[in-house]
């Protein structure tokens, strides 16, 4: 009975049986996947025991050799990031970024809810490898179930001797603190998250310094890693770097979790082979999303979370490989795909995303604070049928105060549109400002005719409306 209910949970989450190696989702088939008992029965904490029998530098080297890319958005190699800690500077901290808030992204939430001990073991391995004695697990404020499951897992792990002093009879000691966020999107940026942990308002820090590994939490070296990134560590230590790099491609090894939402027949989270699985495989594969809802035509999709430039059906055969997606005008980001079929009102879809990012601005940077609000106001005017053709150009003008120069976008050969490669330039400290402009630029570039239809028949006067929050 337990196995049957576990399968129902897995299918609800989007896991359909296939040949993809399940590195981080193997326990999702069990109803009690979040318990210590299930974790130990299925090999849990054996990787920690194996790591403690090695020198910390050897564990670090194993992770570096695995080329484990960060799964939070930036895709920076975890082992290389660990190496940025200045030698001889103590204490050092590990901060786990569990503030998953990118629109369309919900993979980390499932990892925290369904397999919290895997995350905890990953934290312990990272702390041992880098010489950290304190870990802060920062979980988004709205994720109540994840918080409860992690709290229970931490209590059980402390009682079993996996966390605390002289872990498993070794000389390794570490404490893990669960911290609840306040629900701000911007603290997904690692320096803003550190500010929040310190009790300050969540706002990105000025740069330099560029890496918290040099100067981070409380002014000390700090490693900030994503939930999925750390959840890979037990498998890597158990099976070795070679086994991990044999999956996927040389530059993008292993698997990764992808959250698919929108107009597909089976939305959910899927663990796919990194670097080789294409968008077509994922969206149309019968063991994955199964095609577009009601057998409609695909119109556009956002490949890397709400802040990513959009793709069209012309990019379906691109693999999940950052080095190939970037030159084609977008990014893989947080591993979230939002699908829009032929019935989608493109300007309205762009407004939904722009409204979110305008609202989530922390207010520190003027181009983001003011520009995002104006982008929302102007686009709302267009969507409501009160705009003019001049407003379409005004959207680009305002957007270019945030992101000067050529903004990345996909190619549409049938319309004579050539790709502009990622990344973009920006006048803000972090990515929130450009994120408000990304859906507008993509929609206007790829589907300008739909915006023209919204303003058809209106004159070219510019309506000045004061944003409500100025």
Q: What can you tell me about this protein's structure?
A:
The chain has 470 residues and is of the alpha/beta class. It folds into three domains: 22-245, NADH-ubiquinone oxidoreductase 51kDa subunit (Rossmann fold); 255-341, Ubiquitin-like (UB roll); 346-455, Up-down Bundle (de novo design (two linked rop proteins)). The chain is built from 19 helices and eight strands. The strands form two sheets. A four-stranded parallel beta sheet has the order 3-2-1-4, sandwiched between helices. The chain has a four-stranded mixed beta sheet with strand order 6-5-8-7. It is globular and about 75 Å long. The N and C termini lie far apart (57 Å). Mean pLDDT is 93; it is low at 1-17.
Describe, in short, the structure shown.
The protein has 470 residues and is α/β, with parallel strands linked by helices. The chain is built from 19 helices and 8 strands.
Question: What characteristics describe this protein?
Answer:
single chain; 470 residues; alpha/beta; Rossmann fold; Ubiquitin-like (UB roll); de novo design (two linked rop proteins); 4-stranded parallel β-sheet; 4-stranded mixed β-sheet; disordered N terminus
Helices, strands, pairings?
Elements: H1 2-13, H2 36-41, H3 46-52, H4 56-65, H5 78-82, E1 93-98, H6 107-114, H7 116-130, E2 134-139, H8 144-160, E3 175-180, H9 190-197, E4 222-226, H10 227-231, H11 233-239, H12 241-245, E5 255-262, E6 268-273, H13 279-284, E7 298-302, H14 322-325, E8 336-341, H15 346-360, H16 366-383, H17 389-402, H18 432-446, H19 448-455
């Amino acid at each position: 009975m337990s196995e049957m209910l576990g399968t129902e949970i897995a299918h609800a989450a989007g896991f359909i049986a296939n040949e993809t190696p399940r590195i981080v989702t193997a326990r999702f088939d069990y109803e009690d996947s979040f318990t210590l008992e299930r974790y130990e029965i299925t090999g849990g904490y054996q990787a920690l025991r194996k790591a403690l029998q090695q020198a910390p530098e050897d564990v670090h080297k194993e992770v570096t050799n695995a080329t484990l890319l960060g799964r939070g958005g930036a895709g920076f190699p975890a082992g290389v990031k660990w190496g940025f800690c200045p030698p001889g500077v103590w204490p050092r901290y590990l901060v786990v970024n569990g503030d998953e808030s990118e629109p369309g992204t919900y993979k980390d939430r499932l990892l925290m809810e369904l397999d919290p001990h895997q995350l905890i073991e990953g934290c312990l391995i990272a702390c041992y490898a880098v010489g950290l004695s304190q870990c802060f697990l920062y979980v988004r404020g709205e994720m109540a179930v994840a918080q409860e499951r992690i709290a229970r897992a931490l209590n059980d792990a402390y009682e079993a001797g996996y966390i605390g002093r002289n872990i498993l009879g070794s000389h390794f000691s570490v404490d893990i603190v669960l911290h609840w966020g306040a629900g701000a999107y911007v603290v997904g940026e690692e320096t803003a998250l550190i500010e929040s942990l310190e009790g300050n308002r969540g706002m990105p820090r000025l740069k330099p310094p560029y890496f918290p590994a040099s100067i981070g939490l409380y002014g000390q070296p700090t490693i900030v890693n994503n939930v999925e990134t750390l959840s890979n560590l037990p498998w890597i230590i158990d099976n070795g770097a070679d086994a991990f790099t044999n999956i996927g491609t040389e530059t993008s090894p292993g698997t990764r979790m992808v959250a698919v939402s929108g107009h597909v027949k089976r939305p959910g989270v899927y663990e796919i082979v990194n670097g080789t699985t294409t968008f077509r495989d994922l969206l149309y594969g019968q063991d994955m999303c199964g095609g577009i809802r009601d057998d409609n035509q695909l119109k556009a999709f956002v490949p890397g979370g709400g802040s990513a430039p959009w793709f069209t059906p012309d990019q379906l055969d691109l693999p999940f490989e950052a080095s190939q997606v970037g030159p084609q005008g977008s990014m893989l980001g947080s591993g979230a795909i939002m699908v829009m079929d032929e019935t989608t009102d493109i300007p309205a879809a762009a407004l939904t995303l722009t409204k979110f990012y305008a609202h989530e601005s922390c207010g520190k940077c003027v181009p983001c604070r003011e520009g995002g609000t104006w982008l929302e106001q102007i686009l709302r005017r267009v969507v409501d049928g009160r705009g003019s053709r001049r407003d379409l150009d005004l959207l680009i003008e305002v957007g270019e105060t945030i992101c000067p120069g050529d903004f990345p976008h996909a190619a549409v050969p049938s319309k004579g549109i050539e790709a502009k490669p990622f990344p973009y330039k920006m006048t803000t400290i972090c990515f929130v400002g450009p994120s408000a402009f990304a859906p507008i630029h993509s929609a206007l570039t790829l589907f300008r005719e739909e915006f023209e239809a919204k303003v058809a028949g209106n004159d070219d006067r510019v309506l000045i409306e004061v944003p409500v929050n100025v």
